[in-house]
Amino acid sequence: MTFFVVVEVSLRPGISDPEGATIERALPALGFQGISHLQTGKVFRFNVSASSEDEAIATATSIADRLLSNPVIEQSTVRVEMTA
């Protein structure tokens, strides 16, 4: 089976996010008010061929931990969105 997975990578709590802070400071100049605690991250979407959803998640988690994120400063979440 083929599973469509989504991996979201974000900074761990306590790690500064200068890009997010810059975006947050720019929002009022663009007319957006009331936005706070903005955080940036990365999203990866791909298909995984596996015999089960659990196996697809395990494969995607391994990829996220070994290649897509820096586990020292980033955390990742993996989910299956749909079967492709």
Could you list some keywords that capture this structure?
Mth169, Chain: A; three-stranded antiparallel β-sheet; single chain; 2 helices; 84 residues
What does this structure look like?
By secondary structure, this protein is of the alpha+beta class. It has a single domain, classed as Mth169, Chain: A (2-Layer Sandwich), CATH 3.30.1280. The protein contains two helices and three strands. A three-stranded antiparallel beta sheet has the order 2-1-3, with helices on one face. The longest helix is centred in the C-terminal third of the chain and has 16 residues. The radius of gyration is 16 Å and the shape is elongated.
What is the secondary structure topology, with strand pairs?
Elements: E1 2-11, H1 18-26, E2 41-49, H2 53-68, E3 74-83
Antiparallel strand pairs: 1-2, 1-3
Task: Provide a short characterization of the protein structure.
The chain has 84 residues and is α+β, with helices and mostly antiparallel strands. The chain has helices at residues 18-26, 53-68; strands at 2-11, 41-49, 74-83.
